[in-house]
Specification:
Layout lengths: L4 E10 L9 E9 L4 E6 L3 H7 L5 H16 L5 H4 L3 H8 L7 E3 L3 E5 L2 H12 L7
Antiparallel strand pairs: 1-2, 1-4, 1-5, 2-3
Protein name: DUF3037 domain-containing protein
InterPro entries: DUF3037 (IPR021398)
Length: about 130
């Protein structure tokens, strides 16, 4: 176990029809600058997404979510953004945009276990209560 470190996170949101502003939370982006850590966990619920827009192209959504995962992992496969340090990639991913994938404002915290914190955030912010 590590000593407690500060971290930042944002909720990844799917906004199928940007003009309506309705969204469903589909993941968590988590960054810890001190550990040069950047992670994303995505849990797309197609039923919830299609409830907002029955014409939503789920294949497109999955490609966009795959691109977010690639940027988080970094490296040349993610293009020029993938070559940036983890903290810069986090800031790029959390920049405000009008697109079908958006993020919440960035929030901060302090923890000793980033994996446990990620699981807690997924449970609290992404998963439907009562479904596990």
């Amino acid at each position: 176990m590590h000593a407690p470190e500060f971290y930042d996170y944002a909720v990844l949101r799917l906004v199928p029809r940007v003009e309506r502003g309705e969204f469903v939370n589909v993941g968590i982006l988590l960054s810890c600058a001190a550990r040069k850590h950047l992670d994303v966990r995505i849990e797309l619920d197609p039923v919830r997404a299609l409830a907002l827009d029955p014409t939503l192209d789920l294949a497109l959504v999955r490609r966009l979510l795959d691109a977010v995962e690639a940027v988080c992992q970094g490296g040349p496969a993610a293009g020029p953004i993938g070559l940036l340090p983890p903290r810069a990639r986090f800031h790029w991913l959390t920049a405000q945009r009008s697109a079908i994938l958006q993020t919440s404002p960035v929030h901060g915290g302090k923890c000793a276990d980033l994996d446990a914190t990620m699981q807690h955030l997924l449970q609290r912010m992404v998963r439907v209560p009562g479904r596990g």
